[in-house]
Design brief:
By secondary structure, the chain is α/β, with parallel strands linked by helices. It folds into 4 domains: 2-87, SH3 type barrels (Roll), CATH 2.30.30.190; 91-246, Leucine-rich repeat, LRR (right-handed beta-alpha superhelix) (Alpha-Beta Horseshoe); 282-439, Leucine-rich repeat, LRR (right-handed beta-alpha superhelix) (Alpha-Beta Horseshoe); 443-527, Phosphatidylinositol 3-kinase Catalytic Subunit, Chain A, domain 1 (Ubiquitin-like (UB roll), Roll). The chain is 19% helix and 19% strand. It contains 13 helices and 26 strands. The strands form 6 sheets. Strands 10-12-13-14-15-16-17-18-19-20-21 form an 11-stranded mixed beta sheet, covered by helices on one side. A 5-stranded mixed beta sheet has the order 23-22-26-24-25. A hairpin with a 2-residue loop joins strand 4 (65-66) and strand 5. Helix 7 (356-366) packs across helix 8. The longest helix is centred in the last third of the chain and has 14 residues, at 380-393. The radius of gyration is 28 Å and the shape is globular.
């Protein structure tokens, strides 16, 4: 087994410029990243071995044991391997990596783009460039292992404002700080896909990040307590992106992150009862809770129809791809005093007629301050139509609950905006106080155009399908049309309301309605 593992590193590393990697060091091997967990012999073989834990556990072979002896441990039961030192690279210092990545060609015109969190910045066209004038340095997936000689970074790249060090070989925050303290104008830092040991004294590194405004730490295996432990290093941070980590319970960020305006926690398995801890962030304007498993939310400090004192500055909230099924959650969102933009796609909020458009109208009617829903601006006519339809939709229920005299507390709790809408538009006419007719099947049919981006010669196919049709049956239909096995089909869709955005259809057991696919949308069909 050890012989097979030794053969895994396809390329022999260059001679190291520094000392051999030791336990805790980061290394690359065959294009993959790993952390050294053990250095020493592995009997009965001779010579030196590195026991490594791979960032990608699928690359591993075991849990750090060999022939009954446990040499090291891994997070994943098959995330470890033994490799020969000659098969791994311990990387190079920052300046060496910059010089390798930015070899100057006098005839080359450079155009680059850096993306940190949700922000994109264009370098533009730079006819004459030198390392000293670089405003951004992109070293993603480069084998940076540390700062190098004292002062060399400040001499070489003194004007860097945006820095991408995602997926490097940096192993600790002290090394990151040793780099950033030499970049006096640094405002944005991308550190995703790293494995950084926590600093012994976080507050001692404040000067190294004193101007930092934007920080991305996606896929770093961090917990929320670890983030709070590091937070004293970032005294002026405004935008923090920590997607795809190990964040579950959220503790109050007392005394830290108080300057934060934007926070993305997408793709973390959050305990929703702890979400209110984030209300301790007084300046928070944007919050992304997509793909966190959210199903419920309560602001118990405010009665139905009143405003909560929590999240006073929150303007933009993303709740896509969650498990929200109850309309009372939307009523709770109506308590947020500053909420202007909401994205709530791919939840299971259904209206009585099962029509996704009706559900969107209910969202608009229930959230009176909302300006943008699912990235689409709400025009005055759309709001007026949604609110009038809402009055009619629940007119009979309102009348039975006491209506013109005084609606019951139960009705008011379920429809906290209804009375204000009556004051705005007047009570519905008697002829409108009836249950809505069942939504006709023909009106539930969606005209969908199937396109094939990887097969330019194949003409688009238009079909009318029920909104309640599950994706599995859609793939069955495509199998009959294309003769491509359903298991090989990959589906996404685009909407004319959001040009340039492609949404993934990732479950065969969910309906077209679940994904908010509407009449006139395109479904993109690809296969392997």
């Amino acid at each position: 087994m050890l012989e097979k593992e030794a053969a895994m590193g396809a390329e022999r590393r260059e001679e190291p410029e520094g000392p051999e990697p030791g336990p805790g060091s980061r290394v690359s091997c065959g294009g993959e990243r790993a952390t050294v967990r053990y250095v020493g012999p592995v009997p009965p073989t001779s010579g030196l071995w590195f026991g490594v834990e791979w960032d990608n556990p699928e690359r591993g072979k075991h849990d750090g044991s060999h022939e009954g002896v446990q040499y090291f441990t891994c997070r994943h039961p098959n995330g470890g391997s033994f490799v020969r030192p000659a098969k791994v690279s311990g990387g190079v210092d920052f300046v060496s990596a910059v010089q390798q990545a930015y070899r100057v060609d006098s005839e080359e015109v450079l155009s680059q783009q850096i993306s940190i969190s949700s922000k994109k910045l264009e370098w533009g066209r730079v006819e004459e460039r030198s390392l000293e004038t670089l405003p951004s340095v992109l070293l993603s997936r480069c084998d940076v292992n540390g700062p190098g000689a004292d002062g060399q970074i400040r001499k070489t790249t003194p004007n860097v404002t945006w820095l991408d060090l995602s997926g490097t070989l940096l192993s600790c925050w002290e090394d990151v700080a040793a780099i950033t303290q030499q970049l006096d104008t640094l405002e944005g830092l991308q550190l995703s896909n790293n494995r950084l040991c926590l600093p012994a004294e976080p507050s001692s590194h404040c000067a190294a990040f004193c101007k930092l405004r934007v920080l991305a730490l996606n896929s770093c295996q961090l917990t929320w307590p670890q983030i709070l432990e590091c937070a004293p290093m970032w005294p002026q941070l405004e935008d923090l992106c920590v997607e795809e980590n190990d964040i579950t319970a959220l503790q109050r960020p007392d005394g830290v992150l108080q300057t934060l305006k934007s926070l993305s926690l997408s793709c973390n398995p959050l305990e929703q009862l702890s979400l209110l801890s984030l209300a301790a962030l007084p300046r928070l304007e944007q919050l992304n809770l997509s793909k966190t498993g959210l199903s419920d939310l309560h602001f118990d400090d405010a009665a139905p129809g009143s405003q909560t004192a929590m999240f006073p500055a929150l303007k933009d909230l993303k709740l896509d791809h969650n498990n929200i099924t109850e309309w009372r959650v939307v009523d709770e969102l109506g308590k947020l005093p500053s909420l202007l933009q909401l994205s709530c796609r791919s939840n299971r909020l259904l209206s009585s007629d099962g029509n996704p458009k009706t559900a969107n109208q209910m969202l608009i009617a229930k959230l009176g301050q909302l300006v943008v829903l699912n990235n689409c601006e709400i025009h005055p006519d759309d709001r007026r139509g949604a609110e009038l339809d809402y009055i009619k939709m629940f007119g009979e229920e309102w009348l039975k609950a006491g209506g013109r005299s005084q609606a019951s507390a139960e009705f008011t709790c379920q429809h906290p905006r209804y009375l204000s809408l009556i004051h705005k538009y007047g009570a519905p006419e008697d002829g409108e106080l009836r249950k809505p007719e069942p939504f006709a099947l023909k009106n539930q049919l969606l005209k969908i155009k199937f396109v094939f981006p990887d097969d330019v010669d194949r003409k688009p196919i238009e079909k009318k399908l029920p909104a309640s049709m599950v994706v599995q049956k859609v793939k069955g239909l495509l199998y009959r049309l294309l003769k491509v096995p359903a298991a090989d089909l990959k589906l996404t869709y685009t909407s004319p309301k959001m040009l340039g955005t492609e949404f993934e259809i990732d479950s065969d057991l969910k309906t077209l309605q679940f994904y908010s696919i509407e009449d006139g949308d395109q479904v993109l069909v690809r296969w392997s």
